[in-house]
Amino acid sequence: MDLNKWPRQEGPVDHDLYGDEHFGTEPPCVMYEKKPVLDPEGKEVEGLYSAWVILNNPSQYNSYTTEMVKGVIAGMHKAAMDRSVVAVIFTAVGDRAFCTGGNTKEYAEYYSGNPSEYGSYMDLFNGMVDSILMCKKPVICRVNGMRVAGGQEIGMACDLTISSDLAIFGQAGPKHGSAPVGGSTDFLPLYLSMEQAMWSCISCEMWSAYKMQREGLISKAVPVLKVDGKIVRNPLIVTDKYVDNGEIVYGETVKGEAAAKAKEMLKSSETDFSLLDNEIDKVLWTLANLFPNCLMMSIDGIRQKKKFFWDQAKLPSRHWLAANMQTEAYLGFNAFNTKKLTGKDTIDFIKYRQLLAEARPFDQELIDAVMGERIE
User: Fold this and answer.
1) What is the pLDDT of residues 116-157, one digit of tens each?
2) What DSSP state is assigned to residue 43?
3) Total domain count for the chain?
4) Is the backbone of residue 243 left (phi > 0), alpha (psi -120 to 50) or beta?
5) Does residue 337 form part of some domain?
C-alpha cells in the first residue's frame, strides 16, 4: 500500500495538557528549564535536551506546597510530550535540601483538622507520584541536599538517583504525625532488605548518601564540598570501605573529635556541584545513545514493579491520611509548626501513650496535655 496516496495531517501535534501556567521563578514554585545534552567533550548536541523540573522553595527546605505539586505534575507531563527531551532531571534550588516533603506550615495551618481538604490534596500528591512513574522519559533525581519524608518518596519514584555526598535520606512520618504511605512503604522493600526497609521506615533515622549507595537505594554519591580550591568527600562520613568489629563502617558518621572537625569544615566551606553535574551529563549521554522506544519499554518494565505496589495502596492510603488529619497528624504537624514558640518540634509521646492507655478521648484536654507549652 502506497501511503503517499492517502491524505496526511501536517505535524507536529501539541500533546501538552498544561502549558506553562504551573511554573514560576519566585519561590515557592516549580521551575521548568531545558538544557542541551552535552557530548563527552562538553559540546552541545543540536536539538536534544534534558528537561529540568526544579523545586524552588529553599527557605523551607524545598518542601512542596499544593501549587508546587501541580507544577511537578505539569513538568513531568510537559517533558514526556516534548520530542526533543532525552530525560528529566528532577532537582531543587540550593545545596541544603532536595525536598523535605509536604509544606508543614500549610499542613498545620490549613489541612490539619480538615480531612476532606487533605483528601483532595492527596489526590494531587498521588497524581505527582503517578506523573513520575508514568513519564515517558527517564527521570533522574539529582539530589542536591537532604531527601526526607515526602521528598524521599518522590525521589524513590524516579528511575535513577545521583546524589551530593552531603545529602541525607530518610522518613519522618511516625515522628511527626503521619505514616510514609506516599511511596516509602511501597518502594523501600524493593531497594533494601526487608529489615533495613522496616528500620528506615519506622525509626526516622537519617542515613548518609554513601550508606544509601552501599545499600543500593541510590546509584552514586558524588563529592561537592570545595576546600582550598579542591572538591573533597564529605568529612562527616566514613568513606573508606572497611569492617570494624564485624560491623560495616562505610557510610556511617564519624565520631568524637573527627566529627567536630568535620562540622567546622562544613561550616567554613562552599559547595560546588560541577562533579555531580558531570555525572548527570554522563548518564544523559548514555541514554541519548539508545533507541528511545526500546529504552522506555525497558524502563517501564522495571517501573511496573514499583507501580504494582504503589497502585495497590495509594487509594486506601489517601483515605487513611485524610482521616488521620483529625488526630495524630493534627498533633504532629502543629507541634512541628510551632517549634519556635515551644522549643520542641514533637509532642510528648510518653504522655500521649499514657493518656491512650487510660482510654482518654481525643479532645482539647488531650491536645493541651501533649503539646509543648508556649515559651514566654
Assistant:
1) 999 999 999 999 999 999 999 999 999 999 999 999 999 999
2) P
3) 3
4) beta
5) no
Q: Are residues 72 and 86 in the same domain?
A: yes
**What's 101's domain CATH number?**
3.90.226.10
Say whether both 164 and 307 belong to one domain: yes
Q: What residues contact 269, with CB distance under 8 A and at least 6 apart?
A: 225, 226, 227
Does an H or E element contain 70, and which?
Answer: helix 66-80
Unique residue bearing C-alpha cell 522519559: 137
The rounded distance, in Å, linking the Cα atoms of 65 and 62 is 9
User: What is the pTM (predicted TM-score) of this model?
Assistant: 0.95
Alpha carbons 339 and 104: distance in angstroms, whole number:
12
Residues 127 and 82 in one domain: yes
H/E stretch holding 143 reads strand 139-143
**Does residue 83 sit in helix, strand or coil?**
coil
Asked if residue 156 lies in contact with residue 184, where contact means CB atoms within 8 angstroms, the answer is: yes
- The angle, 0 to 180 degrees and rounded to 10, between the axes of the packed helices 292-324 and 328-337 is 100
User: Is residue 376 pLDDT above 70, yes or no?
Assistant: no
The residue range of the domain holding 366 is: 343-376
- Residue bearing cell 555531580: 276
Residue 2 resides in a domain: no
pLDDT tens digit string along 17-57? 998 999 999 999 999 999 999 999 999 999 999 999 999 99
Indicate whether 240 and 144 sit together in one domain. Answer: no
C-alpha distances in Å from residue 211, one per residue of 216, 257, 258, 272: 9, 21, 18, 21
| Same domain (yes/no): 312, 362 | no
How many CB atoms within 10 Å of residue 357?
8
